[in-house]
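User: Can you predict the 3D structure for this chain?
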Amino acid sequence: MLERKDFTTDFEALVNRAFADFPFFPEFTRPGYATPAFDVYEKDGKYVLDVAVPGYESKDVNVEVNGSTVTVSGWHKETDDKKSARFHRREFRTGSFTRSVTLPQDLDPDKVDAQLKKGVLTITLTPYKPIAPKKIAIKGE
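Assistant: Here is the predicted structure, written as C-alpha cells:
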C-alpha cells in the first residue's frame, strides 16, 4: 500500500521561500504577517471599527482620523528572550503595520473613543452629520 504524504506543508514552505525577498507583498511572505482584520459597522448613529490586535498593548497602537479616513498603525517588537532562539516555525507577528479605512462621512476627531480589550481594539467614531435613513420620493408617470 502506498503511503500518502501531506504536501501542504511542503507547498507552503515553497511559497514562503518564493515570496520571502519581495518587499512589495509583505503580507504574503510568512503566515501571521498579514495586516490586522477589521470589522466596520454602524451602531447607534456612530461608526465602529473592531481591529484584531492580539498581543499588542495600547502604547504600541496608534489611531489617526483625517476627514473620513481612519488609520490604525502599530508596532510589535520581538521579546528579548526570543532574539537568540533557533526557530523551527515562526508565525507570531513582529514589526509594524498600517491599515486605513475610508468611511462614507467626515468624522469629528474630537469625538473618537478607542479601547483595547482582549486583543480587540474598538474604535467608536462620531460623524459630523448624524447617520439617519432618508426617504427618497420616487417620481413616476
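The helical segments are 8-19, 80-83. The chain has a mean pLDDT of 80.
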